[in-house]
Amino acid sequence: MDPGSLSVELGRFKLLVISDRDPVAHQLPERGRVTVGRSETADIQVPDPLISRVHAAITLGETLMVRDLGSSNGTVVRGEKLQPNVDTAINVGETIDFGSTVVIVQREVLGGQREPDEAALRDDRHEGQSDAMQRLNRLAQRVASSKINVLLLGETGVGKEVMASTLHRMSPRASSPFLGINCASLTDSLFESELFGYEKGAFTGATSAKPGLIEAAHTGTFFLDEVGEMPLSAQAKLLRVLELRAVHRVGSIKQTPVDVRFVSATHRNLAEEVAAGRFREDLYYRLNGISLVIPPLRERLDEVVPLARSFLAQAARDAGFGSVPLLAPEAIAWMQSYDWPGNIRELKNAINRAVLLSTSGIVQPEHLAVENQYSPGRSSNAPPAGVATPARGTPAMASDERQRIIDALADCGGNQTRAAKQLGISRRTLSSRLNQLDIPRPRKK
Fold it and tell me: What is residue 344's three-state secondary structure?
């Protein structure tokens, strides 16, 4: 997902400040601009000598923005130093580096409000949920109360991150931090420094010590999204964290004790990755205390319309519309016949687009239609929800995926970076799938 492409749902925000001291949470307004710096003149004061007096500003609204205010040591987002006095879009939960301090904007869902995707995973009345999802939620409630590590399995877009957040909220660790990282989004060197932290002088540019995200999640939950993409060097270090319950920062010989529960997610078959030597078997068994399989949306078609109506309300609110568009009967029939290869994520994107296209206030099938439609399928070959085994793809699913990748490459003129963005995956994941599905690499023009 592109930074800034996700509109921010209404709710109260907090800024989690992670430094050498204990993490501190500061309440933020729903909208407006707050400054961060070491001076008392800043809205949020951070006692870090490497931070400027008024270091940066964070703008809260429909899109989250961060701006470096000409600081001495700069502001870093996604591994890149920001240009001064230029707004940069960020996502909720993304890390921002100020000096030796990390800050994260998090959302606090107010009483009676829920994140829109959560309707697919957590509904106290179980309205609009399939039997499979109701069974999965009951199992998730039992699992959440334990200390066991959880591996979430399912296709891209089914809501694995939402399930991870739900497990945290239902657990005894709910009042502690819920932090995570997308294992496919960072280079090997950045991955280790973000995950484990580093000591002063550990590498060029490490002018001060910085705690890693695992250390910052102490007593809470740490989410490893796309865990199958984790570099082997980092896998070995993560295994030591699980065995010793302690973290070694890069460049340090000291251990920092941590109490963290790990929830991991992947769309890959990790058993096959282990057999191929791309994933450590001992780490796999450590992370896979129990696995929860989230079924694809095509096997939960009863949920499509309730989800669509929830997304309609959110999209209309984000667009500033006074009323929520209605779904025409023909649109409902189309949605229930479509295969939704991109699952909940694709449905949400289709609804967001339809809200802007339906000028009459009624969503018709032509407002929902996507460019590359696939004939409706009723595949039931995925494991039942809650089964503690890795998901196994069927030949038909692999064929569909192969065709989607070929179509995306064709749409993007063979540009793999753009094709990966269109498919909603990382460039590294696309390269891996090209090899696994035996797709010829496009020639550079």
Answer: helix
Report whether 303 contacts 133 (CB < 8 A).
yes
Model pLDDT, residue 21? 58
d(CA 378, CA 395): 14
Question: In this structure, are residues 100 and 48 in contact, taking their beta carbons and an 8 Å threshold?
Answer: yes
Average pLDDT, the chain: 80
Pairing of strands 80-81, 75-77: antiparallel
Return the bridge partners of 15, or none.
26, 105
Summarize pLDDT for 198-246 with one digit per residue, the tens.
778 777 767 777 888 989 999 999 999 999 998 888 898 899 999 999 9
Cβ count near 205 (within 10 Å): 7
Encoded tokens for 360: 């009459």
Asked whether the beta carbons of 66 and 87 are under 8 A apart, the reply is yes
Please state, in angstroms and rounded to a whole number, the distance separating the CA atoms of residues 218 and 380: 40
- H/E element holding 332? helix 329-337
Give the pLDDT score at 372: 40
Q: Contact at 8 Å (CB) between 242 and 201?
A: no
- For 113, residues 6+ apart whose C-beta sits below 8 A from its C-beta are 9, 10, 11
- What does the H/E/C string look like for 36-58? EECCCCCCEECCCCCCCCCCEEE
Q: Span 150-173, mean pLDDT?
A: 93
Query: Could you give the CA distance from residue 91 to residue 89 in angstroms, rounded to a whole number?
Result: 7
Residue 303: half-sphere exposure toward Cβ, Cα within 13 Å = 27
Residue 324, Cβ neighbours under 10 Å: how many? Answer: 15
- The helix-helix angle for 427-436 and 416-423 (nearest 10°) equals 100
Q: Which residues contact 6 (CB under 8 A, 6 or more apart)?
A: 91, 92
Alpha carbons 309 and 325: distance in angstroms, whole number: 9
What the block records as the tokens of 24 is 């501190």
pTM: 0.59
Angle, in degrees to the nearest 10, between helices 188-196 and 232-244: 20
SS3 281: helix
CA–CA dist 212, 196 (Å, integer):
4
| DSSP-based three-state secondary structure for 27 | strand
Which H helix or E strand runs over 311? helix 304-319
Whether 109 has a pLDDT exceeding 80, the answer reads no
372 touches 404 (CB < 8 A): yes
